[in-house]
Structure formats: C-alpha cells, structure tokens
Design brief:
This protein is an alpha/beta fold. It has helices at about 5-15, 20-35, 40-50, 55-65, 75-90, 95-110, 120-125; strands at about 1-5, 35-40, 65-70, 110-115, 130. It has one domain: Rossmann fold (3-Layer(aba) Sandwich), CATH 3.40.50. It has 7 helices and 5 strands, in the order βααβααβααβαβ. Helix 1 (about 5-15) packs across helix 2, helix 1 packs parallel to helix 3 (about 40-50) and helix 5 packs across helix 6 (about 95-110). The longest helix has 16 residues, at about 75-90.
Length: about 140
C-alpha cells in the first residue's frame, strides 16, 4: 500500500506537538511499516516553511523512509477543478489551493492520505481513503 502524508502529520511529528504529535507519530510509523509513504512537493515546501531550521528539517525528512513524489500534470489539473468547484459552492479563499493539490496528488499517486485535515479531502476526493490520526 502507498500512503501519501500531509503536512499536518509531519509537522506534528517534527515539532513534537503535545496534542497531536503522539498520534501522528504512531500513524506515520504504522504507514511506514505497511508500505511506501510519499510526500508531494507541496507538502515538502509547507513542512520546510513551517519549521525555522530548514536544513535540519530536510535532514529529518531524508532520514525517514519517505519518498518525494512530485505533482503530476493530471493531479495538478484535478486540484484546479476541485478548487474551482469548492469556490463555486461558496468556499472562502482562506482555504488555499495547496490543500487541493495535496489531495489530488494522493488520489493520483497513493492508495490513502494520512492527514488531520480530512474535510476537504473527503468532500472533493470521495474516492480517496483518508486516515486521520487524531480521530483514533
């Protein structure tokens, strides 16, 4: 099984978030033992942006058996369609297209998405299995 990982889970683990860190760490460890774990370019960039020391965080990401799998053209197009549908349904611009890119990437390149941000993914990518470590 291939599982895509979202920014929220990686940042929980890297920062040692007291509320979500343990569940995210356990879910990530479970994903790593069940098969491939991939992260797209958007997740990679968001994780680096969310942590002050990007050299250390990139080193940590490379220590994980985490594969960097860039966005495909088809996934990017699907993200654009989903975000356009979201906006047409009254969605606010506060929900950035990055969330849709991550979901579309997971749909195209993985069997599931490990994320705490499950709402947009379940609504706009109904065929995507969403695993929420904070729900358990």
């Amino acid at each position: 099984m291939t599982i895509a990982v979202d920014t929220s889970v990686l940042v929980d683990v890297i920062r040692g978030d007291p509320r979500f860190g343990p569940a995210s760490r356990d879910a990530l460890a479970g994903a790593l033992t069940s098969g491939r774990v991939v992260a797209c370019d958007v997740v990679w960039a968001e994780v680096v942006a969310g942590v002050d020391d990007d050299v250390t965080v990139v080193s940590l990401l490379r220590q994980l058996p985490l594969e960097f799998v860039p966005m495909s053209e088809d996934a990017a197009r699907e993200a654009g369609r989903a975000w356009r549908a979201y906006r047409a349904a009254g969605g606010q611009r506060s929900r950035i297209i990055g969330d849709f890119l991550i979901g579309a990437h997971a749909l195209a390149h993985a069997d599931a998405l490990l994320t705490r941000d499950r709402g947009v993914h379940r609504t706009y990518y109904p065929g995507l299995l969403v695993i929420d470590p904070s729900a358990g």
